[in-house]
Amino acid sequence: MLILGIETATLQVGCALGGHEGVRASFHAAHGRRHVETLAPAIAFICRQTQVDLVEVGAVAVDVGPGLFSGLRVGVAAAKAFAQALRVPVVGVASLDLLAFPVRHTNRLIVSAIDARRRELFYAFYRQVPGGVQRLSPYNVGTAEELVSELVARGEESLFVGDGVLRYPEMLIEGARTESGGPATAHPSAAALVELAHPLAMREEFVQSWELEPLYLRKSDAEINWDRRTPPGWTAAAI
Questions:
Q1: Which of 33-37, 72-76, 84-88, 94-98 has the lowest mean pLDDT?
Q2: Residue 203 sits in which domain range?
Q3: Which of 143, 149, 191, 212 is 20 to 30 A from 6 (CA-CA)?
């Protein structure tokens, strides 16, 4: 089965094509918030390079978050559109899982952490298991201080991946027994998305396009600002 992977959860935009033989091609770019302008031409580019027609795609995989709200909406909307047009199912994979997968060979505790803005992080813990990684915690949202406190309580050597450690390097690296994977592991990979999605698709662990939902973990900035401005007990009146 050939899978189209779409990755837009962070500042990086990515896409990839692959199947049982592995990843055939992938594209990644991080330049501002140009997810809409970048994604469609990138998909067309990897199709040309691999001489693949989109009608050959058997499933669409997408990063469902958590991550940047605008980026997630672009990726999920694109995945739904492609899946509906091609009449194929969708595989959703969490961004924190995608960050942990490329470093699955480490013996350390893997900490995936994405900058959630508002001085918070999206994060989860993982451990190496045969063939991949196992998530040890729920998907969390909290401050860097809260994350450091959890790591200190665990008392384990750990490896940080994701742009969260780039946002708070001193606090996270010096505050616990941790090491950073560096810029190379700062963003979820569309190639990793295809690798993780393929066995799920083969086991038919997918959803139909209309069932796909982003994993936000908290309200958007617009909703938070609206709640702060809205007086208690006020409701909008229909006009």
A1: 33-37
A2: 2-94+188-221
A3: 143
